[in-house]
Amino acid sequence: MLKLVQFFLKNRSALAGRSILAGTGDGSVLRRTFRTDDANKDDLQLSLESLDDSISSATALWRKEELLSRMKALLNCSQEQSEILYKANKKALRVFAPKLLTDNIELLRAHGIEEKYIYDNPRVLSNPTDELSTKLRLLHELPAVEDFKILSPFLKAPLKAVQHMVDVSKQESIAGGNRINYLSERTDTEPVVVAKFFASNIRVYRIALDKFVSNLDICLQHLAPADVVRHLSVLAYAPASIRERLKALENSPLETIKPWMVRVPDIALGKSFEAVIEKGKQPVFKDSVTGVWFETYVIKRMEALLGCTEETAKDIYDKCKGFVSLVDNIELLVEKKIPPEAIVKHSLILTSKREDLQQKVATLETLQCLRNLNDVIPLCALKVYQLKKVVTNLNNEPLGPGSTNRIYYFADSTGFTPSEVAEQFARRTFMFRVPKENFLENLKLFMQHMNREDILADLWAFKYSPGIVAERIERAKQVRGKKLMPWMVRCPDVVLEKSLQLTKESGLVLGENETIVEYFCKRLGFDREVANSIILKAPSVRNVRITKVKKVIDYLLDELDYRPQDIALNPRILMHSLQTTKKRMNQLKEIGCRPKSLIIVCRSQRQYDLFVKEWMNSKERMKKVKQYG
């Protein structure tokens, strides 16, 4: 019994001092302001002697710094390398405890896996420890393996695939003892290189042994051994198909033959032949993607036409999904003196067929009062029939003394460039159908009471009659003053009333022209520096309704007797649901726990449940210690 007590004493841990109850962040001002002598004392109603390190490791609530230090100690790596490992496995940490990473590192190192492999393949640590252990055990059973470390790439493969590979290897009889050694000997390639490509094409083990050997013989007669190793999936095709395609390739104008050419569709191969014949040289290919020679050509051509970087050209190509007429459309727009910046900004207009884009540009050139084609080029995003109708309506509806149109009138009234207005009008084509009188009157009302950026961003309000717009603006103005938004015109009456009611309540809490920082100073008794530190630590607090903030503060200070310092150290509590906060506080009270730090109340449900579970377990252990002590 004495040994049991000594075990607990030896492994004690201050749970409250750990990340379970301590907030993290950039609140150095708050920590200096509210530093107290009992900061490291346990706020739980248990003796410190009863707690051990297993609590923190089991609850999955390690701090990031603690996890990084443990990984750094296990791998003897730099801070930068440990950060890379952490980021690569961050998604797994949402599901598994951080201890998973350290356990997997210890497991891999125990089986002789090099640290370099872990750095190069950090996601291998996201595997459940049991599954990773099973893979290692299976790989040890693979026959005729002299150096186990060459099999490390297979750790990324699914468990069922590894199991199948080992089972097949045990049953078949092949020179070298397994397919990796056999291919290494046939191609004069290092086994470690062969294993790497086998791991990325592990389904090769589903090919029958006779077919594997036969196809390898055929491919090595016509292809470079190194290329065969890199494209093992070609061995899965029927031998007759491989012979037929290789024969066709030998009679083609291609100078070199690659394994991927055996498995691409005939149409893709035909395009490659055409490119060779037209350009008189070998095109640039990518290993496993058909038609990449076309992508390379298009990107280089776009760089030359637009004077942009390769990255920008690649972004345009991806956004337009490699549209066939991409280069032709750019050449057309450049010929029409459209600046490259405008083409890059409105690159989606390049997805039209060349004939359609040519027709759209010709239609825009018929627009009366056209100052510059660049002003209306965003309208090319519309379909041909839509654009013709829009231009016809604009030509039949002169506005203002200068006989302008809606786009220029809106731009001149708001101060935006015509191209910015045309871009938004192309997304909201109803702006061309709104009655002329409504358009002019509503624009005048909006400019008197709202910001121009808000007006352009929310054009839906133009669909309402000027009478409704004026009435809504007047109602909102009485409560919100100058802070009016277009959505107040188009929202249902219930929503508007609710918004105005919340605005009134917020006004009663904040007072006239008072900010949330000033409210913190007044309600919590802090100076402005500390109040600003609260906002810096949790910037999202600014977006929380002040009435909700007031209810949370009242509950914590008046009902639970927490101090303003507790709120300042953990401002996330102000963004947390009050209903959930009350529920958790009541549950903690029932089990005899009053956390000094409010951070545990703000944790995810999984983390909170783990904390409660570990609290109950530690309480039970303490009872046993007292009982047998």
From TrEMBL:
Gene Ontology biological process terms from the UniProt entry: termination of mitochondrial transcription
Annotated keywords: Transit peptide
GO molecular function annotations of the record: nucleic acid binding
SMART domains: Mterf
Assigned GO CC terms: mitochondrial matrix
Pfam families in UniProt: mTERF
Transmembrane segments: none
Superkingdom per UniProt: Eukaryota
Family the UniProt entry places it in: Belongs to the mTERF family.
Protein's recorded name: Mitochondrial transcription termination factor
Lineage: Eukaryota, Metazoa, Ecdysozoa, Arthropoda, Hexapoda
